[in-house]
């Protein structure tokens, strides 16, 4: 059997992903989006020389031990001192307030001795001290967040400080999910003989949601040609950008997903990958819609979504962040076969920092082994196995 190498499959998928499309969103709705146009500062920050302390502003040359300066005014945040500070003068100043003309230094109030309208200092002058110079944070025209970055809370705070009311982000795809299988029932049902709870869509939906405008779960299609065709027609009628099916991807008599997809005009790019779990993955297109036919086994469905759909969605959004981690093993790995192995692993925090604890279970139908899986170790084809402490590549399941 001809199995496509994982990297060739990813490359083939990426060739079908359209260029990112820009849309403008209000700042308050930009969290979790990928920036498509860089965030450029439109003003200098701070917009004036600002005090970093509550204290006094003066000319450093006027400060000598025991020498008294006359306090001639107040500068507070939002209401600066209108005049200028002259020789032997000081201005009472507060954190964030504009440093008045003439002053070149701020001394905090803990180092000041006040006597009526006069102030002297217990600390020596340090020219420019406790002043945040105009433009010190950022300057007009400076790129603050690059295109391709995720707008997480820190980036959103920067965008707000830069006075951006809107951001240019990538349009997100609309995703449709469909589970297939006669044996499947929804969680919560009374299990009849030979029935299995349909779990895949419940894991896939939150996995794909961060990249999507919406993820619509079309439920379960029976392994019957007419029923499956009807369901898939309904899925395509919604004009989704990405369709994800699970189950019926293999070679059994009831594995009819590929047949029906072809009948409905899907062009198949490939089927069956040199990996475990996830070998029977299929991928194709119908017009501009990308179609991923994931295997039904629950571990295979999650792993193939992480290995193939996530890179496609990241490319769709123009996301440029790192995709793999390199971490030490907390325990040895066994030798691999000729297929690339995406090994479930737990991220553990030992005295030497984070490490990957391989989960021994390799059955692709073994759902409970997913409970502590935070990472997938990428074990190369024919890898002889690695000792504890060896640095290996891994995919973070929770990362964007
Ligand atoms: N003769 C061969 N048999 C199989 C091969 C093969 O190459 N030759 N490949 C095996 C591999 S690898 C996998 S993976 C599975 C994939 O099969 P399908 O995609 O056709 O999946 P199903 O047969 O429909 O289901 C497999 C398994 O998963 C359960 N399932 C299905 N959907 C769900 C769901 N939504 N939630 C939870 N569990 C689900 C289903 O009940 C089965 O137990 O084929 C091997 N066979
Ligand atoms: O490769 Mo299948 O997806 O493991 O059992």
UniProtKB/TrEMBL annotation:
Pathway per the UniProt entry: Cofactor biosynthesis; molybdopterin biosynthesis
Matching InterPro entries: MoaB/Mog-like_dom_sf, MoaB/Mog_dom, MoCF_biosynth_CS, MoeA-like, MoeA_C_domain_IV, MoeA_C_domain_IV_sf, MoeA_linker/N, MoeA_linker/N_sf
Cofactor(s) for this UniProt protein: Mg(2+)
A Pfam family the protein falls into: MoeA_C
Class in the EC hierarchy, top level: transferase
General function of this protein: Catalyzes the insertion of molybdate into adenylated molybdopterin with the concomitant release of AMP.
Family classification: Belongs to the MoeA family.
Protein name: Molybdopterin molybdenumtransferase
Native organism: Devosia ginsengisoli
Organism lineage string: Bacteria, Pseudomonadati, Pseudomonadota, Alphaproteobacteria, Hyphomicrobiales
């Amino acid at each position: 059997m001809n199995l496509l190498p994982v990297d060739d499959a990813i490359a083939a998928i990426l060739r079908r992903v359209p260029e990112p499309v820009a849309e403008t969103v209000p700042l308050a709705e930009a969290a979790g989006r990928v920036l498509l146009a860089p965030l450029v500062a439109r003003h200098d920050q701070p917009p004036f020389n600002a005090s970093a302390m509550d204290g006094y502003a003066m000319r450093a040359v006027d400060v000598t031990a025991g020498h008294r300066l006359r306090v001639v005014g107040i500068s507070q945040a939002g209401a600066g001192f209108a005049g200028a500070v002259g020789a032997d003068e000081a201005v009472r100043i507060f954190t964030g307030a504009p440093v008045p003309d003439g002053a070149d230094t701020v001394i905090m109030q803990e180092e000041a001795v006040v006597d009526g309208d006069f102030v002297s200092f217990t600390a020596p002058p340090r020219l420019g001290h406790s002043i945040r110079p105009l433009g010190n944070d950022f300057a007009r025209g400076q790129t603050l967040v690059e295109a391709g970055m995720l707008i997480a809370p820190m980036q959103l705070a920067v965008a707000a400080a830069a006075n951006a009311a809107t951001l240019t982000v990538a349009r997100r795809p609309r995703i449709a999910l469909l589970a297939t299988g006669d044996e499947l029932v929804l969680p919560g049902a009374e299990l009849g003989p030979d029935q299995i709870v349909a779990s895949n869509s419940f894991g896939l939906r939150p996995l794909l949601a961060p990249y999507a405008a919406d993820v619509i779960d079309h439920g379960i299609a029976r392994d019957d040609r007419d029923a499956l065709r009807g369901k898939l027609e309904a899925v395509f009628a919604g004009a989704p950008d990405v369709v994800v099916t699970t189950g019926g991807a293999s070679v059994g008599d009831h594995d009819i997903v590929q047949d029906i997809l072809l009948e409905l005009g899907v062009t198949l790019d490939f089927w069956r990958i040199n990996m475990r779990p996830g070998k029977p993955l299929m991928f194709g297109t119908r017009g501009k819609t990308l179609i991923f036919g994931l295997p039904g086994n629950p571990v295979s469905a999650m792993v193939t979504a992480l290995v193939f759909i996530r890179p496609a969605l990241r490319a769709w959004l123009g996301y440029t962040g790192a995709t793999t981690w390199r971490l030490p093993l907390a325990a040895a790995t066994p030798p691999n076969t000729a297929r690339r192995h995406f090994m479930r692993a737990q991220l553990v925090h030992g005295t030497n920092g984070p490490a990957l604890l391989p989960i021994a279970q390799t059955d692709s139908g073994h759902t409970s082994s997913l409970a502590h899986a935070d990472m997938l170790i990428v074990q190369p084809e024919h890898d002889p196995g690695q000792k504890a402490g060896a640095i290996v590549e891994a995919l973070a399941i929770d990362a964007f």
